[in-house]
Amino acid sequence: MYAKRCLRPSEYWVRPNGETIIPRSPRERIENEAASLLFIGGKTDIPVPKVYEAFEDSGASWLITEYIEGVDLATLPEEQKLAVIAELESHLVKLRGLKSSTIGGPSEIIAPAYRVTLITNKDR
């Protein structure tokens, strides 16, 4: 089993000048990841971890999934590396062909990229 969670507000970082660093869309990122794993697993034969649960507890969002053992690609013989690369390329083709019928992806949550959320001098 693998557990992933976002920070609770009490765990946010505070810079020496007192500024609090707040992560962007932590709950939405966890929900998007869970929905994406379920969507990919349900629409393709790409091996993805099983989602056991996604929930909120004490201000933190959690994602509990199956833990999948792996190996470091650098440790494989060249012949096996080529086989893994070919498999990954076939997975990418499948992923590029996936379409969701909802805006924002499988979770219907739109979590814009960081650069989209930046305020510029023109915005002020």
Compact overview of the structure:
The protein has helices at residues 26-43, 78-97, 114-117, and strands spanning 2-5, 13-14, 20-21, 51-57, 60-65. With 124 residues, it is an alpha+beta fold. The chain has a 3-stranded antiparallel sheet, covered by helices on one side.
How are the secondary structure elements laid out?
Layout: E1 2-5, E2 13-14, E3 20-21, H1 26-43, E4 51-57, E5 60-65, H2 78-97, H3 114-117
Antiparallel strand pairs: 1-5, 2-3, 4-5
Largest sheet: 3 strands, antiparallel
With strands numbered from the N-terminus, the spatial order across the biggest sheet is 1-5-4
- Spans of at least 5 consecutive residues whose pLDDT stays below 50 are none
Total DSSP helices: 3
Described by the principal axes of the CA atoms, the overall outline is globular
Measured between the Cα atoms of the first and last residue, the distance is 46 Å
How many E strands? 5
Helix content: 25-40%
Radius of gyration, taken over Cα atoms and rounded to an integer in Å = 19 Å
Indicate the mean pLDDT.
Answer: 87
Structural class: alpha+beta
Question: What portion of residues belong to β-strands?
Answer: 15-25%
Order of helices and strands: EEEHEEHH
